[in-house]
Structure formats: C-alpha cells, structure tokens
Amino acid sequence: MKLVYLANVFLFLILIQSPAAAQYFENKESRPALGTIVSVDVCYVDGRQDDIKAAMDAVWRRVDEIHARLNPFSKTSDVSLINASHGRPTRVHDDVYRLLKLSQRGYETTNGVFDVTIGPLMELWANAEKNRRLPDQQEIADVKRHVDASKIILSSYSFVQLPENMKLDVSGAAQGFAADEIKDVLTAHGFHNFLVDTGGEIYAAGVNCQEKPWKVGIKNPLNKEELFDAVELHDAALSTSGNYERNFVINGEQRSKIIQPKTGYPERGVASATVIAPTAVEADILSTTVCALGPLQGLKLINSFGDNYAALILSTSQSGILQYHSSPEYENHRSSISKEWP
C-alpha cells in the first residue's frame, strides 16, 4: 500500500455493511491520522458501553503515538531523527524498533524487493518530478548504493544505526503496523469482533454485528466508483497497493510511486495488488512487494507462503484493458456477493 502522510490517499477498499443485529451494538469512529482516515468499527454486547469508551480512548492515544513517531514531516519524530543521524546510533521508541525489525524481516522474505531504506530513491524521483527531468542511469546507480536494508544495525536497548546517506521510508509498512497495534489494544480491552481500516490496510477480527464474516470490497482501479470484487475476512488482514492515484508526473507521463529498489525505477503494469495475510503489516509489505514484482513473480511469492496468504493482482494490458491474476487461496475468500470473473 502505499505512502504515508500523503494529501491524496489511495483507497481501493470499501467496507460492505448492513444494519447491526439486535444482539450487538456497533461503535464506529474515524479520525484523520497517518496521512489518511483511520476507521475502527467495533461490535459489542449490551453492558459494555463504558468499556468501549475506554478502549477507543486507548486506541486513539496509540494512533497519536504512532503518528508522532513515524511522521517524516516532523523533525522530532523517530524516523526523522534516524534520517538526520549522519551514521550515528539513534535511540528510538520500542514500537519503532519493532517496526524496523519487521521491515528487515520483510526485506529478507522478499529477497530485497521490499526495502525500508528506499528513501534516497524516493527523493531522487520526487526531485525529478519537481525538475521535470527523468533521472539518468548514472544518477540512479549512485543513489542505489545507499539503498540496502541489510545494513541497518538494530542493537540492544532500541538503538538504530544507518550508514551515512541512507534514509528510511517506512510508508510501505507503517499503516499496516498501525492496524495491528489497534487490534492489540482492542483485544487487550476484551473486544474480539471489530474491523480496523488505516487507509486501505485492514484487520478484521471475529465477525461483524450480524455474526457473519466481515465483507470488504475491492475497487476497480480504473473506475473508483465500480466494485471489482469482494472478499470475506475472519481474523485476517488485507492490504491493497497500486499506482492509480499515487504517481510521479514527469513530462506529462505518470510513473508509480512504488519503486523497485533493485532497478531504481518505478514499477509498471500493475494497477493494484491486494494481499490477504495473518497480520496487517505483512499484508502491507507484501502488497507493495507484489506491485514491484509484477503478476507472475508476485503470485509465485505469495503462493510460497502457504494457505494463510492470498493475492489478487490487477494489471493493464498494452491496450489498457484490465486483467486479473489471483492465487488459488484467494478463491476461498471471495464473498457470496462476488460476481463471476469478467
């Protein structure tokens, strides 16, 4: 999914809802944070009104903490302090340390296609857009030398050290991480039926207020008003990444903001990638990775993880026709309201 703290947020997902069943009360709250709108929908039984208030207060405190620590536009955030450290060790909060550990694991799992140190490449392409000039091969090669998550040093007592000129960009994992953290807060308060949406990164716990699996719609990336498909989730996460609304525009040509770190160039051809995984941070990392890999290699990667992982990849042909590619496990999540494949 996807860049954090962008003004125009890329949302491919919509929650499909119906009126709450009589035995459940529904508490739904939304707030702007993490560069998007964070929504939390909780189903609870009578007598827990005070509990839900306390739980949601704790949720929003946690969201505020994550936002403050990961915000790249705040000079005092953990991410900004690391990026300004000039190679010196920087002490960070425990949750930021955990996020970087998860990001390193993602780097290893994806054979380096997901790389949280992609910051210098993102800056290069942002400057190219500003200057209306494509970077040349030598510029890209020079910057790529500073992109390698295996060189992040995570030492004891939550110290993080990057080589000189290396910079973090946690946007490919931050919103998924936040969804998992919200899930943990709600579970700790005794709630087990809820849906968390941090701007396209979703965690669905238990059942909805009709005691059925949560249904999530996946939008057509070429027509935001159209639903392409729908899935059912139960104690699972989902993330969609893509290039439909998040692009660099250079000399009138749109280029994705999802960059393949091995080549240094924006990915091309994948309109959106939806991944289902056990945790939202995994889904977030993998949906970004699948976009960079393309349909064939992306599905191969997802299928290698086993039955708890699934993917739907929508790509465009040279003639602009939308094409779909799905993993076998994805079929097990398709909702009863899904249409026949086009």
Short description:
The chain is α+β, with helices and mostly antiparallel strands. The protein contains eight helices and 18 strands.
Q: Can you describe what's shown?
A:
With 342 residues, the chain is an alpha+beta fold. The protein folds into 2 domains: 13-59 and 193-333, ApbE-like domains (T-fold); 78-172, T-fold (Orthogonal Bundle), CATH 1.10.3980.10. The protein is 30% helix and 28% strand. It contains 8 helices and 18 strands. The strands form 5 sheets. An 8-stranded antiparallel sheet has the order 2-3-7-8-11-16-17-18. Helix 7 (280-293) runs antiparallel to helix 8 (295-303). The radius of gyration is 20 Å and the shape is globular.
Q: Mind summarizing the main beta sheet?
A: 8 strands, antiparallel
List the uncertain runs. Answer: 1-12
Order of helices and strands: EEEHHEHHHEEHEEEEEEEEEEHHEE
Secondary structure: helix percent? 25-40%
Q: Total number of β-strand segments? A: 18
- The CATH class of the largest domain is Alpha Beta
Going by CATH, the homologous superfamily of the largest domain would be: ApbE-like domains
Mean pLDDT: 89
Q: Oligomer, anyone?
A: single chain
Strand order of the largest sheet: 2-3-7-8-11-16-17-18
Per CATH, what is the topology of the largest domain? T-fold
Counting DSSP H or I runs of 4 or more residues, the number of helices is 8
The first-to-last residue Cα distance is: 25 Å
Tell me the count of domains: 2
**SS-derived structural category:** alpha+beta
Tell me, briefly, the overall form.
globular
Computed Rg: 20 Å
CATH architecture field of the largest domain: Roll
Proportion of strand residues: 25-35%
